[in-house]
From TrEMBL, chains A, B:
Organism: Thalassobaculum fulvum
Transmembrane segments: none
Domain PurM-like C-terminal intervals: 175-327
NCBIfam families for this protein: hypE (TIGR02124)
CDD domains tied to this protein: HypE
PurM-like N-terminal domain sequence ranges: 52-163
Protein name: Hydrogenase expression/formation protein HypE
Family: Belongs to the HypE family.
Biological process annotations from GO: protein maturation
Pfam families per UniProt: AIRS (PF00586), AIRS_C (PF02769)
Amino acid sequence: MSGPEFPMSCPLPTGDGETVQMAHGGGGRAMARLLDTVIRPAFDDAELDRRHDGAVVEVGGPAAFTTDSYVVRPLFFPGGDIGTLAVYGTVNDLAMCGARPLYLSVGLILEEGLPLDTLRRAVASMRDAARAAGVRLVTGDTKVVDRGKADGLFVNTAGIGRVVAPAPVGPAAVRSGDAVILSGDIGRHGMAVMAARENLGFETVIESDCAPVAAPVLTLLEAGVAVHCLRDLTRGGLASAAVEIAETAGLALAFDEAAVPVRDDVAAACELLGLDPLHVANEGRFLAIVDPADVDRAVAILRDHPVSAGAVAIGEVRDGPAGRVTCRGPLGVDRVVDMLSGEQLPRIC
Amino acid sequence: MSGPEFPMSCPLPTGDGETVQMAHGGGGRAMARLLDTVIRPAFDDAELDRRHDGAVVEVGGPAAFTTDSYVVRPLFFPGGDIGTLAVYGTVNDLAMCGARPLYLSVGLILEEGLPLDTLRRAVASMRDAARAAGVRLVTGDTKVVDRGKADGLFVNTAGIGRVVAPAPVGPAAVRSGDAVILSGDIGRHGMAVMAARENLGFETVIESDCAPVAAPVLTLLEAGVAVHCLRDLTRGGLASAAVEIAETAGLALAFDEAAVPVRDDVAAACELLGLDPLHVANEGRFLAIVDPADVDRAVAILRDHPVSAGAVAIGEVRDGPAGRVTCRGPLGVDRVVDMLSGEQLPRIC
């Protein structure tokens, strides 16, 4: 295994024993104190310090706009936590729109009794993640609900980016014959969270792949690669993303299972839990669907970035049947791949 | 009382008995069906129908950006519900930035077991409110948490608007001598929610003032009124807003209690519950702090709009002491007004 040591449990032992109270959400003095002592100093942005109802920002062109709420359990897990997820998840959605991520909003829903140290740790993670991703946390909101009416901490982020793709990026732009590139190995985020939640004692600690992916995407676009669609492989995994693209585009998508990288420890954990790695969530992996003429160049560009060093072409887009995704197995037999059904991996992000 | 009849209770009786399941948040087939049958048809926006990770929008100038989460209990109350709140609350925050509201994102956190009819009703409210406010719901996210880990439904909205104010609007622009205008009577939203939550049998039904206020704000700006600061009077009420402005501006603010409109039924309900109307939340009221030369014109403009027909000048900004807000009572005695302390009115929005 690699990476630093990290604490596994949540809630954390608190330094001062202070916890979130209902008054912290009341819009009065206690809330002002929480914002002044915990939130604004952590995020440290001039727009937040204006203490106004919103931020004023410059986009300078067409804007990408996206949002996600984060309800992951546990709040902290190997390779990340709810704070890193909340920043990278939304930043990555902006990148998937062919945009350079610029600004984030943060909405916190706190459960009464949450240790303030847990909150401090989560907002510190958000700040660090925002710096790593080159975005500013410019506006926010904090609500408190009574004990038993939330699960410690829920986070919503919304994001704005500047669209840099010269043509629309999305399922509607996908063409038959396009090449399908996967940015790296799959399944780590889902397995890291499951292992932490269920206290599964795998031999190695699987760390989430949680990471910002805008840098390689922007390099693809700057290099003039004809990027038709981008999709990060979060809830529902590679399979659900591929099916949704195929259904929306009205085309078929075929890929080679042997070409999809899955680490041995992830594959073993999936087998143990009866999960298909194609359905397991990732937080730093994406599909890039590009013009076939650009595939080698695109893979080479992605491999130049650490976050997508494992990029590989895995398949192609075909005329039809519309919405069908197939995967060629090791014996050369095609199987139909569908979206995740049921609830194998709840609250994974 | 005025206004239509409305059901008071929540959760609602369901038509088909269907409820939210964990799989509705799993990123797979069940979630796709929920989005395709409940969410996208209700919001009916071309950007949502692209089924991509975000929306691409045009702002065409400096952008205002804001967010709020909504955890109001009960979900439905006289004069509004969590859906109307989630749209108007964020639209109003954009207006308070001197901006024309344009686009909203919606993040839903659903509790397992929530009747789908409750969700349908909330999203229908959001759609209607968005139409009334002239904004588009262009991107969203849905998460599900297990039974007992949320309280039915939490909603986050973030919003983008185009800044139309010619100069920065906010506490930093407030000057000594500025006039303080209140847009109408206060206390209705907080009392409406409290009455619905506690089943208080007041003689009249108090309806929330929940409404979009961008129209009068934009008219002020278009008319060239020197608007220095705008602030909607949500959590913490008029008192907390005034104190926060005074503290941030480093100035004092003085107003006349007799000039502040409070309906008789609201005043009676506040007295019964031991609440000061100055601390009670509103969802369609704001302060406009303007150059004193413009006060009469500003009040006249506001009165031309139904949502601010009760606008009145209530006081002025003074040199100091910094952060002090005072209120002159009926006997001519000034009292110091502070932010709400404690937790008188939890989960009011």
